[in-house]
Amino acid sequence: MSLFRHALQKALHAYARLFKIVAPIYVAIILLKHTPILPWIAAHMAPAMGALGLPGEAALVLVLGATINIYAAIAGCAGLALTPGQATTIALMLGFTHNLLVESALILKLSRRGVLWIAIRIVVAVAAGLVFGPIFARAWPGAVVLAGAASAATSAPPIWYDLFVNGGKSLLFLFAVLVPIVVALEVLQGMGALARLRAPIKPVITFLGFDARASEALIAGVFFGLVYGAGVIVNRVEDEGLEEDQVGRLCLTLVLCHAMVEDTVLFAPVGAVLWPIVILRVTVAAGALLVLRVVARPAVVTAPRQGA
């Protein structure tokens, strides 16, 4: 019971901290929407965003997600009118490349090739948007998602309605999604679930080129993320004495595939289709590891024959 109480306190604290980030950004987006500024941004960014299957306003969401964090991007999405396909594209791109400033600091601390892993992260995000954005836009045009935004087919609601009614719905939805996730992850961590997963996943991580010593750091990053899992990741890397090759594989995996539960489910309130996000992020990470395994495979040296 004490474990659950502790987990609930951590979840409520996390929501309170995120509320301080999300609420001001949501208000700013709504205010911009009711001025000429956001239409101006949309008009100037429309050609670039069009290649991703996104409206021009989405440029602001991508910048918020990449420079601040994924919660800021969700607040931005909640202030705009997005179709499910567009929300899915944003979720996929920011899954690869959110919170760059903070998370890149950890990658640079862990690996001498940190700049390479960060560059791969950005390139993959842009490539994913270019390839899958138009596909998602055609696959899920749907009705415009009303997550604090007015439908394009109707007149815009008054600013007070956008701020308080739609804003309240979005923040409540975020609470309903975030708190259970954090509680579940904290309980699993408190029960020692990470350590118990080492044996079952050993064949998989060995196939992908990992040493068994990297398993706990890998699990922490995949489930908890680079920020929340940083303590476990850094401690495991240092305590296990992982070589640069193993650290590089760990960084490559985590820049492409971390916080898979939270970062994916949090986009549900803005209408994203979740299953392709998970499949694509896991597939890209696994594919990158297999390519690295082939490229980095040590050369086989044949011993000279006797009498040669």
Describe this structure in words.
With 308 residues, the protein is mainly alpha-helical. The chain has one domain (2-295). It is built from 15 helices and no strands. It has helices at 2-33, 37-50, 58-67, 70-78, 84-97, 100-110, 114-139, 159-190, 193-196, 198-207, 215-228, 230-240, 244-256, 260-265, 275-295. α11 (215-228) crosses α13. The longest helix has 32 residues, at 2-33. It starts with a helix and ends in a 13-residue tail after the last helix. Mean pLDDT is 82; it is low at 146-154 and 299-308.
Question: How would you concisely characterize the structure shown here?
Answer:
The protein has 308 residues and is an all-alpha fold.
